[in-house]
Design brief:
The protein is an alpha/beta fold. Strands 2-1-3-4-6-5 form a 6-stranded parallel β-sheet, with helices on both faces. Strands 9-8-7-10-11-12 form a 6-stranded parallel β-sheet, with helices on both faces. Strands 14-13-15-16-18-17 form a 6-stranded parallel β-sheet, sandwiched between helices.
Length: 597
Amino acid sequence: MAKTVSDFFVERLHAWGVRVIFGYPGDGINGVFGALSRAGGKIRFIQARHEEMAAFMASAYAKFTGELGVCIATSGPGASHLITGLYDARLDHMPVLAIAGQQARTAMGGHYQQEVDLPSLFKDVAGAFVQQASSPAQVRHLVDRAIRTALGERRVTAIILPNDLQEMTYEEPPRAHGTLHSGIGFTRPKTLPYPSELQRAAEVLNSGKKVAMLIGAGALEATDEVIAVADRLSAGCAKALLGKAALPDDLPWVTGSIGLLGTEPSYKMMMECDTLLMVGSGFPYSEFLPKEGKARGVQIDLAPDMLSLRYPMEVNLVGDATETLRELLPLLEQKAHGSWRRDIAANVEKWWQTLEERAMQPAKPVNPQRIAWELSPRLPEHVILTSDSGSCANWYARDIKIRRGMMASLSGGLASMGAAVPYAIAAKFAHPDRPVIALVGDGAMQMNNMAELITVAKYWREWADPRWIVCVLNNCDLNQVTWEQRVMNGDPKYDASQQIPDVPYHRFAELIGLEGIFVDRPEALAPAWERALSAQRPVVLEVKTDPEVPPLPPHITFEQAKHLSEALLKGDPHESRVIAGAARQALASLLPGNKDE
Ligand SMILES: Cc1ncc(C[n+]2csc(CCOP(=O)(O)OP(=O)(O)O)c2C)c(N)n1
Ligand SMILES: [Mg+2]
């Protein structure tokens, strides 16, 4: 049989190093599936339950391996289902290639079945490179360029293949005018600023007395360098959500997360510093950074368009975090460890105690914060953590003490619900020998994570370490938003939009052959984690949690506090519980008069 365009396509992906593709089939892309089948396992196809989940998997695979993530879908609805997962990769700067089928070239423009204008659909999310192939000799450079662009620019790219083209005999581009003769291969360059710029940065940092650092996903590979620079500058360091695993939390000067899901020591440090060094972070909220003009700033980022975006920096360094910090270090003078760092460490120590006290507050029936608190000391070495968007992201960000060698990620920039389980599945295909734990709200579970448990049931037996745990926080509420409505908008809980059905998640797990554990007493949490972590198969650990424990930011403005009290006065159906419950203490500090702003 002659080599088809699809055979060539699969061969070329393989030559680029692609070994895993996440996706879902359909007649618009059958040609490529046929070729994948003929390729005899050279590239592994992982079947998700939904194309959006496959795209989340590709995004997470890129995050956990540093390699290209690839997802595939059929024409029309399959392709449009990919979009949200692709935006996740786009917003978190992940290299992902989307492959989509399309109607036959002979039908296009004819309002044909499943005909969607895919180049237009993908144009925003895959704007760096999106092309619909129209001839066999074009496919070689489309693959080469889509992958090189994705890797080189850390962007999402897309190739759309009409189904008649997929089955045609492949032709190499002839040596003729109007053809391209492309090749494969990409290695990341070493990106460093000019020495004069490094010197300018060092001057700013050397003249500071109170240096604060903020690191993000760009610093994940730069742990030693961040520690060395922070020690030289006697700085404290906060971590943006995607940079959680960049520094271990047992260092006394690490203030943990920042922002709405952040910590008080991070907030204080940013308000009091005179110098800010930001590394590899697109952390969005300027109000958690120093007031403009209050601190001198230096930023390091690989992407020029992320520089001086949240705070006007004095020195903007385009560079790789590891390499740039290494070059910067010898230019930095050793600062004495004085009251600045001592105060940060004291704040951090006090904050961990506060978190413990908050986690141990009684609640009805289980305080969700305690889930993370009990998990933290039990985290196995090299665990990979994921979290969904929802209140659990607060506990993930603040309460989990991460150690060296662990990985952790979530849908950061997009903050999409429904990412934690596909992320956790991709983590297993990236590192089958590492335990994986996902924290997920019940709303996110119902939205789509639950269906992906079927994917886990399908594949887990092949994972070298079977430990794969999803902890479901069952509060029958879209809790994060309920609290946002109360605090940000001053509205009472709107049951019609916020209340969600009670579902026995642990029993669903059992039905499909996984292990189910149910907890509705705080004392049962620790043994439940122990059991889940020693289980011989994937586990759904369902915990009945209290929706009245507020997942509130460490710093609330007077305005927000006022809104909250208004909501309570307007008659939130859950008002009496809110006031009387475990939230009482936290709320007291929010009410007008108790904050100085
Ligand atoms: C796809 C998507 N839809 C809606 C939202 C808005 N949103 C953010 S958190 C949240 C509530 C999540 O509820 P649940 O998963 O039950 O977690 P909880 O906050 O109750 O712990 C919603 C609706 C979102 N981030 N993503
Ligand atoms: Mg919920």
